[in-house]
Write a structure and sequence with these properties.
Helix content: over 70%
Radius of gyration: 31 Å
Number of helices: 6
Number of strands: 0
Structural class: mainly alpha
Number of domains: 1
Strand content: under 5%
Order of helices and strands: HHHHHH
């Protein structure tokens, strides 16, 4: 969750604890208890979504590293094949990618795998490993899989973020409904009213200190 979500979550928890400590003050069939029950459920939902969001962000970062490793391995395989193809005088059949993106790299790698197959014996005669095409196809599969995994992880944390926004909005609406009820309930109890005001208040984001301008340098005498 971002800082704004965290501040609001803290407020929701304070409101929950405020009511929990005074639950006997409210009718068992009244609106406060109904809203209190809803609030507790949504707070739990927010916390579960926050865990999912954090997991998704972590997996997305791991996916970035894994994708980078797979990309490097595939590029090395292509470069090795291209180098031998030049020695064999058939480099025109093995065009390395001109665009710097994974789609172009995969397209080139698939082309290399197809074009190298009928020349496999010649590549091996030039000291390429006997399983170099198997390794190339494995590298292609690894990069494709890492792209899918990273995309899924990003989708998961983006989805969780959107769901957190919705859940937080629902909690804010509950607190908004509770506010006039609490002010009426504790109008003659300044202590409780002050505690409610404190509990239901969302802290503001800390202000950044203004940048101190750098004094202009004086020209040398």
């Amino acid at each position: 969750m971002d800082d704004n979500h965290n501040r609001r979550h803290s407020m929701f928890v304070r409101v929950r604890e405020f009511i929990q400590q005074r639950i006997a003050d409210f009718s068992e069939t009244g609106v406060v208890r109904q809203l209190f029950t809803q609030l507790k459920v949504i707070i739990t939902e927010v916390e579960q979504l926050a865990a999912s969001q954090a997991t998704g962000i972590g997996l997305a970062r791991l996916g970035t590293q894994t994708r980078g490793d797979a990309r490097a391995a595939l590029r090395d395989a292509i470069d090795a094949i291209y180098g031998v193809a030049r020695t064999m005088g058939v480099e025109s059949q093995f065009q390395r990618p001109t665009a710097n993106n994974d789609e172009a790299l995969l397209h080139a790698a698939r082309s290399f795998a197809t074009n190298a197959l009928p020349l496999k014996a010649q590549f091996i005669a030039h000291e390429m490993p006997e399983d170099f095409l198997d390794d190339l196809n494995a590298d292609i599969n690894d990069l494709e899989a890492s792209i899918v995994a990273q995309g899924n992880a990003v989708g998961d944390h983006v989805s969780a973020s959107a769901a957190i926004d919705d859940a937080v909005d629902r909690c804010v609406e509950i607190v908004r409904k509770l506010d006039p009820i609490m002010k009426n309930k504790y109008a003659s109890s300044p202590g409780n009213l002050a505690e409610w005001m404190g509990a239901s208040h969302t802290e503001r984001a800390p202000k950044r200190a203004p940048a101190i301008p750098t004094p202009p340098q004086q020209p040398a005498a």
